[in-house]
Amino acid sequence: MQYFHHDNVRLHYQDVGQGAPVLLLHGLGSCTEDWLDQIAALSNNNRVIALDLRGHGQSAAVRQAYLMRQLAEDAQALMEHLQLPTYHVVGFSMGGMVAFELALQAKESVQSLVIINSGPQALANSAKKRWQLMFRQLIISVLGMRSLGRVIGRKLFPQPNQRALRERFESGMAKMDKTSYQLALRAISQFSVQSSLPQITQPTLVISSDQDYTPISHKAEYIRLMPNARLVVIENSRHATPIDQPQALNKVLTEFIGSQCRAGKQTQSPDGPTLQQ
Q: Where does the record locate the signal sequence feature (predicted)?
């Protein structure tokens, strides 16, 4: 197992493959294990680094409040720890929020950006979003994390043939530290980089499932504020696209990241990692 320390937190990561570095940032209540299909596909041509965000997976539980920018600082510290000055970033859901922050914090390092079922702000000021956050907090307080996993899993994977995915999700949520999850919810509710979108000039691919929590039109609206972004829709998928449509997602990811690597004229360093000229 691979660990490093940043900001007094022990963080776990996976590091697989060779080539241009790709950093994967998972969603709320998730971990590096939920990227296994993407790691397998991308590591054929890239060095893939998947980080367990603080409080998630095999990273240490947290007891103090934090902001999304601090998760981006964790990610940046990991890439510095690995001596990778340039890399591509893929963020899903909450990980997409971290990716937005990272693109702003490390403009020279982030070569391209993929945002999956996420956005530049949490929209916590909407009544619907406030209710969703309150509902999750209530279930956690009264019934616990496994029950929350069961409720969310039924929404993410409603089809009869998705039973194994529901059970996998529920089991993963049952292992999640309750306080860490609640602090992550708090960080999400406070997140917004909407006003900074014109500053994100890296090539950006925004991926939306056709049945995501937020409509496709919401993603189409915010990418208009980004100088170099485009939108792709994956059909027959709900919010957890990396899990319910891995093959379709992997095809889009490998094509986009491959095109960015070719455009950037990647070269192999003597030590192994790929560096940007």
A: none
Residue 235 DSSP class: S
pLDDT given at position 143 = 87
pLDDT average, residue stretch 35-44: 98
3-state secondary structure of 98: helix
Alpha-carbon separation of residue 250 from 37, 87, 93, 114, 200 (angstroms): 8, 18, 16, 12, 24
From CA 261, how far away is CA 177, in angstroms rounded?
A: 37
Residue 269's pLDDT band (cuts 50, 70, 90): very low
Q: Does domain 2-121+194-272 have CATH number 3.40.50.11740?
A: no
Residues written for the chain: 277
Is 176 within 8 Å of 145 (Cβ atoms)? yes
What sign does the dihedral 26-32-33-37 (CA atoms) show?
positive
Reduce the DSSP state of residue 47 to 3 states and report it: strand
What are the pLDDT digits (tens) for 102-112? 999 999 999 99
Domain spans of the chain? 2-121+194-272
Residue 166 is predicted with a pLDDT of 97
pLDDT band at 191 (very low <50, low <70, confident <90, very high): very high
Collapsing DSSP to helix, strand or coil, 133 comes out as: helix
Q: What is the distance, to the nearest Å, from the Cα of residue 119 to the centroid of all Cα atoms in its chain?
A: 11
Cα–Cα distance for residue pair 182/9, rounded to 1 Å: 17
